[in-house]
């Protein structure tokens, strides 16, 4: 599908994610990351005239695409917000929440967005280009210890300190880093070894993107918010694309699915948990072959348990 640009997007785990929501045709669902609308469009096909779908996205280009859909389908609405705003929908008001995390193909493939080291463009990386600092602006003033910590924590880069020092040396000698190619070249000079087939800049670019968009903090808020908005029996479906996200989702679902026994009252029934973790799924070999960017995807599914009496 091509929306407002020459860059197309193949939705990962399309049918599997919508099936995992166990659609009630009259229900209210949330696509927490609209992107280019692949999941939303398939979900709408399964809703009755009484069903509703609310989508969130921070990217103005994605919001523009969603507004076109909203104009043609009254069951659908879009919010230009991050999905941490889920709580605004109200308690127990939603039958299913789908979160498709990460960066969409149009964002990666458009050099002007600055997400990819494979294309030279402005070093931006903001999901929402209407607010906040770009990566280039942040790199102008950040201290080396802070930069190294961000690259280490969010990129799991073992050469974080050499990379941070190389960036600092570059800006002192030649001024601020303004483009993706400039940053990729600096990182390549500091990362001495890398996994076969992986660009030396991969981990640093991931770290800076996650940090500048506060992705993990927003994900944690959104996961907690899902407990607030899901009705009993409602489904939470999350697709992640790197280990930091997946670990957070896995731990969240496990923590809220595990029965808790009050040691002070050993014979009492365990406290009811708000979630039941259901399944973990990865793309098929056929999907990975057709869309290599899906290879790292992991989908986890949980259901909201009945509220305690």
Written account of the structure:
The N and C termini lie far apart (47 Å). Strands 3-2-1-4-5-7-6 form a 7-stranded mixed β-sheet, with helices on both faces. Helix 1 crosses helix 2, helix 7 packs across helix 8 and helix 10 runs parallel beside helix 11. It is 40% helix and 15% strand. The protein is built from 12 helices and 7 strands. The N terminus is likely disordered. The longest helix has 15 residues. It folds into 2 domains: 183 residues, Rossmann fold, CATH 3.40.50; 84 residues, DNA polymerase, domain 1, CATH 1.10.150. The radius of gyration is 21 Å and the shape is globular. It is of the alpha/beta class and 309 residues long. Helix 3 links the parallel strand 2 and strand 3.
Dominant shape: globular
Would you tell me the structural class of the helices and strands? alpha/beta
Largest sheet: 7 strands, mixed
Number of helices: 12
Q: What's the alpha carbon Rg, rounded to whole Å?
A: 21 Å
**CATH fold description of the largest domain:** Rossmann fold
Number of self-contained structural domains = 2
Furnish the topology, listing elements before pairings.
Layout: H1 14-20, E1 28-31, H2 38-45, E2 52-56, H3 60-72, E3 76-79, E4 94-100, H4 105-109, H5 135-141, H6 144-155, H7 160-174, H8 180-190, H9 202-212, H10 215-229, E5 230-240, H11 243-255, E6 275-281, H12 285-290, E7 298-304
Parallel strand pairs: 1-2, 1-4, 2-3, 4-5
Antiparallel strand pairs: 5-7, 6-7
Helix pairs in contact: 1-2, 6-7, 6-9, 7-8, 10-11
């Amino acid at each position: 599908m091509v929306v407002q640009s020459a860059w197309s997007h193949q939705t990962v785990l399309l049918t599997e994610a919508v099936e995992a929501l166990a659609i009630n045709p009259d229900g209210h669902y949330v696509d927490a990351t609209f992107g280019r609308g692949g999941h939303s469009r398939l979900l709408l096909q399964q809703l009755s005239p009484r069903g509703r779908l609310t989508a969130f996205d921070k990217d103005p280009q994605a919001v523009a695409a969603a507004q076109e859909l909203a104009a043609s389908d009254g069951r659908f609405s879009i919010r230009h917000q991050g999905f941490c705003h889920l709580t605004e929908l109200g308690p127990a008001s939603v039958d299913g929440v789908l979160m498709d995390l990460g960066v969409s193909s149009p964002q990666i493939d458009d050099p002007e967005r600055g997400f990819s080291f494979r294309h030279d463009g402005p070093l931006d990386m903001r999901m929402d280009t209407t607010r906040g600092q770009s990566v280039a602006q942040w790199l102008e003033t950040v201290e080396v210890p802070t930069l190294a910590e961000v690259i280490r924590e969010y990129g799991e880069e073992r050469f974080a300190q050499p990379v941070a020092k190389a960036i600092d040396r570059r800006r002192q000698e030649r001024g601020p880093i303004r483009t993706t190619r400039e940053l990729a070249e600096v990182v390549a000079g500091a990362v001495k070894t890398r996994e076969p087939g992986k660009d030396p800049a991969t981990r640093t670019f991931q770290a800076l993107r996650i940090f500048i968009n506060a992705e993990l903090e927003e994900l944690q808020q959104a996961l907690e918010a899902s407990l607030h908005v899901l009705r009993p029996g409602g489904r939470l479906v999350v697709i992640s694309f790197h280990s930091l996200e997946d670990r957070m989702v896995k731990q969240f679902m496990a923590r809220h699915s595990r029965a808790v026994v009050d040691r002070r009252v050993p014979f009492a029934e365990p406290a009811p948990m708000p979630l039941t973790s259901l399944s973990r799924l990865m793309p098929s070999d056929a999907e990975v072959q057709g869309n290599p960017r899906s290879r790292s995807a992991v989908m986890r599914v949980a259901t909201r348990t009945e509220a305690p009496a």
